[in-house]
Structure formats: structure tokens, C-alpha cells
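Appendix B. Chain record.
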Amino acid sequence: VQLVESGGGLVQPGGSLRLSCAASGFTFSRYTMSWYRQAPGKERELVATITSARFSTDYADSVKGRFTISRDNAKNTAYLEMNSLKPEDTAVYYCHAAWIARYWGQGTQVTVSS
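C-alpha cells predicted for this chain:
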């Protein structure tokens, strides 16, 4: 089982990034996919979730209207489109899969700074 995040990096405030989470080793289409983030000295927090069947989405209040979660079951990949980025969005972003088991990716660093 693997979840491999990519797309992180350094971006200026107001900029955009698109994170990807490539899944393998399990039935991706059956799993609810989520993105979490953890900033230095803070607890890991849920950012966005997308369900397996109806692709229903939910977001943390802090990112609503700026971030969009999506998935492509044919490619076994989940995405997080992040716009209007703020310095407080700086964190390691983790991909998470949940159904009959739970899996985590290794994380990708997002730094928002001028």
C-alpha cells in the first residue's frame, strides 16, 4: 500500500499550488480520501475530504472558498487545488485514505512566504 504526495513547494502569498496523491495497493475507489496538514508546533488538522461514491466534499472553515479537493478514480489519484494561499497555510500536507483500513502518505511541504 502506498500513498505518494507531490506538488508541494515554496509559493508567494496569493499564489496557487496543486497537490497530488497517487495511490496503489488498495481499492482506491472504495476509500474516502482526505488531506490533512500539520504546521510546526501544531496538531495535525483535517483540511478537506471527498467521499468514495458520491464525491461529496467537506472543508475546514479556514480553507473554504480557496481550496478544492477532487479525485480521479481511473487514475487512483486525489488532488488538492490550493488558491489564494496565505502564510498560515504553511505546513506539511498529508494524504489519507479511509474505509476498512486507514493509510497515510509521507507528506509534502508547502511553504507560503514572500
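Further analysis of this model is presented in Appendix C.
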